[in-house]
């Protein structure tokens, strides 16, 4: 098994709005947590996005780690195949607000933007 790698070139991009919102959510948890981003089978387009906070001790040896000035995003290698180049944005608009995924690997996305197909 290889050791977790910290990548300088970010395969998962965050806009400033997304980073600020994620940091605010993490601060509410009262812990220094990482953000895990991934995919799973399901959703109306075949695959759905996953995002959740995770303890640093739960990072696996083969996870990719992306550092944003001390805040870390982790992604497993299988998910990264589908997410490489993803841009995660956040909008506080009343209609259509929340996290938005712009995935260059998606051939099709559902109307809500939370699932995709490749």
Automatic annotation (TrEMBL):
Belongs to the HesB/IscA family. Ycf83 subfamily. GO terms for biological process: iron-sulfur cluster assembly. GO terms for molecular function: 2 iron, 2 sulfur cluster binding; protein-macromolecule adaptor activity. It comes from Limnofasciculus baicalensis BBK-W-15. NCBIfam families: iron-sulfur cluster assembly accessory protein (TIGR00049). Residues 12-114 form the Core domain. It comes from the Bacteria. This is Iron-sulfur cluster assembly accessory protein. It holds the Pfam family Fe-S_biosyn.
């Amino acid at each position: 098994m290889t050791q977790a790698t910290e990548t300088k070139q970010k395969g998962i991009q965050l806009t400033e709005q997304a980073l600020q919102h994620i940091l605010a959510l993490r601060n509410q948890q009262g812990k220094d947590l990482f953000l895990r981003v991934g995919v799973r089978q399901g959703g109306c387009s075949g695959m759905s996005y996953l995002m959740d906070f995770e303890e640093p001790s739960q990072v696996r040896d083969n996870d990719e780690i992306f550092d944003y000035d001390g805040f870390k995003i982790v992604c497993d290698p299988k998910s990264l195949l589908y997410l490489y180049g993803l841009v995660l944005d956040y909008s506080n608009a009343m209609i259509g607000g929340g996290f938005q995924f712009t995935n260059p690997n998606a051939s099709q996305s559902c109307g809500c933007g939370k699932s995709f197909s490749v």
